[in-house]
From TrEMBL:
Its cofactor is Zn(2+). It is an enzyme of class 3 (hydrolase). Pathway: Pyrimidine metabolism; UMP biosynthesis via de novo pathway; (S)-dihydroorotate from bicarbonate: step 3/3. Its EC number is 3.5.2.3. Zn(2+) 1 binds at residues 13, 15, 99, 247. This is Dihydroorotase. Homodimer. It comes from Alkalimarinus alittae. Keywords: Hydrolase, Metal-binding, Pyrimidine biosynthesis, Zinc. NCBIfam families: pyrC_dimer (TIGR00856).
Length: 343
């Protein structure tokens, strides 16, 4: 297949950062994504409906004229997020979900939730009003190995949470293990997962064999190839619980190439192109449209986009660097050949 036309896709997990960065990050995603779930881990985080409205306005200002790109805003849950905050968020009509970062789990998660038990009434309120809970699913305790943090979170936190609030919609974000795949597959219909392009295309060997490659460092960290294979099978399965979320998370080059580098891969410049490559390698290009364009809106209860985009098989080279505020970001696959382009 040399050409593929699909319903316009959406990105259900995206970091746009803020202020001077928006002029680069927003046009990159607005190029062909219809909508995106905008992650709230700014400094300070987006914790109130007012913050979300103001952030949305800054994103809209950076959206190219003529683009129909729609940011879908989220709130960052803290130990202090109250049921009233949830009600305000829903009433605003701007917030479509709330994000749970276990405190200390990832970039800008210091104000995250220290103990899920503390916000049970808030989560119950979310269930009542139908707001999905988006979860960075990793435990953070020192005694748990970084490669096991998602697996342990599934057992210790997700399984009891799904039971304890029987109507709460949950997205396990950026899953990276076969345990997470199995958990989501066996969970009720109200539980889904996003899968990133980098976790489909790479495993920890790509990051660590022959030299350490900081631009593959993200959280949850790349795992063994058997986990990569489980994610690939989930993505091409046609199961609507698994859908596209890039977790495109740009950091300036000097924040990645340093003694203690930040976690996050920047993929938004070529996201659907990278997914197409991954699906093609699995002989499953026919499954891309469901994953990228149908299952996400289905889960969120939103209409599908009504127009299409066309992917063309035609080799090009990913840029070595891209502008990022007054610095640079090194994109995923910098300087290498990509097979697909959006016409
Ligand atoms: N995925 C990452 O490695 N980093 C994300 C945060 C996140 O999604 O966990 C970021 O904001 O940089
Ligand atoms: Zn995360
Ligand atoms: Zn993320």
């Amino acid at each position: 297949m040399n050409e593929l036309t699909i319903t316009r896709p959406d990105d259900w997990h995206l970091h746009l950062r803020d202020n001077e960065f928006l002029t680069q990050t927003v046009p990159a995603s607005a190029r062909y994504f219809g909508r995106a779930i905008i992650m709230p881990n700014l400094v300070p985080p987006v914790t109130t409906m007012e913050d979300a409205i103001a952030y949305k306005a800054r994103i809209s200002k950076a959206t190219p004229s003529g683009s129909s790109f729609k940011p879908l805003m989220t709130l960052y849950l803290t130990d202090n997020t109250s049921p009233k905050d949830i009600q305000n968020a829903v009433d605003s009509g701007v917030v479509v979900a709330c994000k749970l970062y276990p405190a200390g789990a990832t970039t800008n998660s210091d104000s995250g939730v220290t103990n899920i038990g503390k916000i049970k009434p808030t989560l119950e309120k979310m269930a009542e009003v139908g707001l999905p809970l988006l979860i960075h699913g990793e435990v953070t305790t020192d005694d748990i190995d970084i490669f096991d943090r998602e697996k342990v979170f599934v057992e210790s936190t997700l399984e009891p949470l799904v039971e304890s609030i029987p109507t709460l919609k949950i997205v396990v974000e950026h899953i990276t293990t076969k345990q997470a795949v199995e958990f989501v597959m066996n969970a009720p219909e109200r539980v889904a997962a996003t899968i990133t392009p980098h976790h489909l295309l790479y495993n920890r060997n790509h990051m660590l064999v022959g030299g350490i490659r900081p631009h593959f460092y993200c959280l949850p960290i790349l795992k063994r190839n058997e986990h990569q294979q489980a994610l690939q099978q989930a993505a091409i399965s046609g199961n609507p619980k698994f859908f596209l979320g890039t977790d495109s998370a740009p950091h300036a080059q000097d924040k990645k190439e340093t003694a203690c580098g930040c976690a996050g891969c920047y993929s938004a410049f070529a996201a659907i192109e990278l997914y197409a490559e991954a699906f093609e390698a699995l002989g499953a290009l026919d499954k891309l449209e469901g994953f990228a364009s149908h299952f996400g809106p289905g889960f969120y209860g939103l209409p599908r986009n009504t127009d299409t985009i066309t992917l063309v098989k035609s080799e090009w080279q990913a840029p070595e660097t891209l502008a990022f505020g007054d610095t640079d970001v090194i994109p995923l696959r910098a300087g290498t050949k990509l097979d697909w382009q959006v016409a």
